[in-house]
Amino acid sequence: VQLQAFGGGLVQAGGSLRLSCAAHGIIVSIHVMSWYRQAPGKQRELVADINIRGKTNYADSVKGRFTISRDNAKNMVYLQMISLRPEDTAVYYCSAASSRNNYWGQGTQVTVSS
Q: Which of 32, 35, 69, 95 has a Cα at 20 to 30 A from 101?
């Protein structure tokens, strides 16, 4: 199983980025797909997730600014981020969870400058 996250980068405050997660070895439509992030010196936190029915859930800090979506045909998950803030700076990780397993991908760095 491989979850490949990409799309991070350096952006100014107020800017936008779209993160992508390409899944290999699992089917995203039958997993709870999530984006987590970890800032320096802080614990990893859930940013957003989407369940097998397509129901989404967001951390309060990103509601209204981030949107998680899933493309079943491409077996990919996305995180559209707008109105980025310096406090959104972190390594963002893609995760896939089922009742039996929990998979993590490598992170992608997002840096928001003020």
A: 69
What is the phi/psi pair of residue 13, to 5°? Answer: -55, 135
Kindly report, residue by residue over 74-103, the tens digit of the pLDDT: 999 999 999 999 999 999 999 999 989 999
Q: How many helices (H) and strands (E) does the chain have?
A: 0, 11
Q: How many Å apart are CA 71 and CA 64, to the nearest integer?
A: 21
CA distances from 6 to 18, 39, 92, 108 (A): 9, 17, 9, 6
22: tokens are 């390409």
3-state helix, strand, coil in the chain (%, to 5): 5, 55, 40
